[in-house]
Description:
The structure is a single chain. This protein has helices at residues 3-7, 161-173, 211-218, 266-279, 298-310, 314-326, and strands at 44-45, 69-84, 94-108, 113-127, 135-137, 140-146, 181-185, 197-201, 229-231, 238-243, 255-260. By secondary structure, it is α+β, with helices and mostly antiparallel strands. The protein has an 11-stranded mixed beta sheet, with helices on both faces. A hairpin with a 2-residue loop joins strand 5 (135-137) and strand 6. The longest helix has 14 residues, at 266-279.
Amino acid sequence: xxxxxxxxxxxxxxxxxxxxxxxxxxxxxxxxxxxxxxxxxxxxxxxxxxxxxxxxxxxxxxxxxxxxxxxxxxxxxxxxxxxxxxxxxxxxxxxxxxxxxxxxxxxxxxxxxxxxxxxxxxxxxxxxxxxxxxxxxxxxxxxxxxxxxxxxxxxxxxxxxxxxxxxxxxxxxxxxxxxxxxxxxxxxxxxxxxxxxxxxxxxxxxxxxxxxxxxxxxxxxxxxxxxxxxxxxxxxxxxxxxxxxxxxxxxxxxxxxxxxxxxxxxxxxxxxxxxxxxxxxxxxxxxxxxxxxxxxxxxxxxxxxxxxxxxxxxxxxxxxxxxxxxx
Length: 327
């Protein structure tokens, strides 16, 4: 028996294999369907900060300091029950009852203190049924969110994102101060109008850059970033990659993508990129504390735990919903 038989087929010469540092229960830090070489169909303007053929790793100028206050906002959601309606004409529609919460952590970097600055919980019944009404389950109310179209069951979970985003905007807007930086966990989507705001994307689902620029990204050292580029996706916007400290081995270990509004001037986007580079690494998590380290920022991880606790006991809510629909 040769070595290949004992240990499996060896990689091709020159191929290196890395184990993703994330706990596999959370997926992978890079989730492009075809692997790192899978291209996105989005148009990319690479020469925002540097000419495309002059890209190089960038560090923040020494004159750039993190803001005194950083706000980190996130939301969580949970499906409490799947439901069906029975319409007067005999037809039926699928629906789901969901709980969702949004909160914001205020980090005072001068004092070295972080606190929960605001959090709210809402619940909704999401369905295309024209006759559905709010469901009251004990002291809990699930407000109807009526969807257009036929309301296929597979599309219902995505319908929760709009109200959740609106709730995130509400809670973060109530605590903002002049000069702070708002970090949104995930893409900005409809929050691009918010001032001094960046979107923080910790899981890379798509590969936007051509091979030579991707090689620069995967070669970044901790606390280095790529030049700013512009994405021609449906939402548009400026974007850049940076590598957080404390990452494991592998080309995408510790790499995050950051984005800001397309409404900004190019120089404003570049200034936000430098600001993110001196700010985000301060919050990088460690592997022995978080299975998604270092991308899952420490304040976000704590906020997620607090918000999930505020959603309440899912089993009790499912029972209350069942009883409410039987009455």
